[in-house]
Design brief:
Blueprint lengths: L1 H28 L8 H10 L3 H8 L20 E8 L2 E11 L2 E12 L5 E7 L1 H4 L4 E5 L7 H4 L28 H8 L8 E5 L5 H8 L5 H5 L5 H4 L6 H7 L136
Antiparallel strand pairs: 1-2, 2-3, 3-4, 4-5, 5-6
Helix pairs in contact: 2-3
Length: 380
């Protein structure tokens, strides 16, 4: 009995150790910054009507912009939006809701209008997740709608009313995707008509000061050994990390711009494709390729319709009013009209018949031999 109890205790204890080891391995092997693409955040920010609409798009189950699961409950965390305003500067903070009144800042959007009324927008990733100075500056095709009342005196900063367990009706939690599937989904969520310029500095000192008074860093304090600097000591931020990972060098915001152009690509038969073959200027007929057993049309050896350097030689036209010299005949030095005929005249040829056929007596005439008559006469 004691042996069975000891065996059971050892089995349970070994299972706990294995579970702990698996948890540590999974935590250290994943890259947190892969789960929220800041270019997708910048894209939906420019398409939103206001900050409430922006929060809706961040948590829309149809778009699924976020893939973050910081509290490890196998559900993507709800991202709430709060705003701080001071003068011409607006700071929009994106926070993950982890538990009741427990939040973690993921990124900030800093909007500032200068004295020339030029608006600067920066999407700044949290250094804990993305490294230092991981910043994108979006360039929108048209001015976002909410810019019209962002700097009105009566504007009221937006503060999300949602919290843990109290979410809007449209929100339904979903399970996190594998990283490769999440990145594939983002290709359809990033507006390719916008530009996303990477910079490594922050423009507004006022925005930096404003954000430091509103920070929420619960996850950072609970996991100090999982910061970006500890995970990747060889690079400074996510932008440099992407350059070291071959699978991340392609820009998912514009897949067509990354397609390699290789004119030496050949088909499965080993012959070059028609579009990759050099043009043959010696053939004036583009349909002259020998395809389907059809032989090309014969062409003059010294004529080329594609050769524009040599003008086309037109045939010389003879002026009928001008005197012309006799045209020479090949292999005959004499003109045709003065050359002797190859045969003698007919009357000079010897005749085997003493009497011409025209002078022979017709058959109806009586014969002179033996006093006979022709068949047309009477009796003998």
């Amino acid at each position: 009995m004691k042996t069975k109890i000891v065996t059971f205790v050892l089995f349970v204890f070994s299972g706990i150790l294995v579970a702990q080891n698996q948890t540590v391995v999974n935590a250290t092997s994943s890259e947190i910054s892969d789960n929220l693409d800041l270019r997708a955040v910048a894209s939906i920010f420019g398409d939103s009507a206001n900050l409430e609409d922006f929060e809706h798009r961040l948590n829309d189950p149809k778009l699924q912009i976020s893939n973050l699961d910081l509290n490890n409950d196998n559900q993507v965390d709800y991202l709430r939006v709060i705003e701080s305003v001071e003068g011409r500067t607006h700071v929009v903070i994106i926070q993950a809701v982890l538990r009741q009144d427990v939040y973690q800042d993921v990124a900030t959007i800093e909007i500032e209008r200068n004295r020339e009324n030029v608006v600067n927008v920066q999407i700044v990733g949290n250094p804990y997740f993305y490294g230092a100075n991981y910043i994108y500056e979006p360039v929108y095709v048209s001015t976002p709608v909410f810019y019209n009342y962002f700097w009105v005196d009566t504007y009221r900063p937006y503060y999300s009313p949602w919290n843990w367990g109290y979410y809007p009706t449209y929100y339904v939690g979903w399970n996190p995707y594998p990283i490769f599937r999440y990145r594939r989904r983002m290709t359809g969520c990033i507006n390719i008509n916008y530009q996303y310029n990477y910079v490594n500095y922050r423009r507004s000192e006022v925005a930096v000061r404003m954000y430091n008074t509103r920070r929420n860093d619960y996850y950072e304090r609970e996991n100090p050994n999982r910061s970006f600097g500890i995970r990747h000591a060889e690079v400074s931020n996510r932008y440099e990390l992407d350059r070291t990972r071959p699978e991340m060098t392609r820009d998912v915001s514009n897949p067509r711009a990354n397609a390699p152009r290789d004119n030496s690509v050949r088909n499965t038969t080993g012959a070059p494709r028609t579009g990759d073959m050099p043009r043959n200027n010696a053939n004036p007929n583009p349909r002259g390729n020998n395809q389907n057993g059809i032989s090309p049309k014969p062409v003059a050896p010294n004529r080329s319709s594609n050769d524009i350097s040599t003008p086309r030689q037109e045939p010389t036209r003879v002026n009928e009013s001008a005197p012309s010299s006799p045209r020479p005949v090949q292999n005959n030095p004499m003109p045709r009209e003065t050359a002797p005929r190859a045969s003698a005249p007919r009357q000079s040829m010897p005749q085997n018949n003493p009497a011409p056929r025209a002078q022979q007596a017709p058959r109806s005439a009586p014969r002179n031999e033996g006093g006979r008559e022709n068949n047309g006469g009477g009796r003998r």
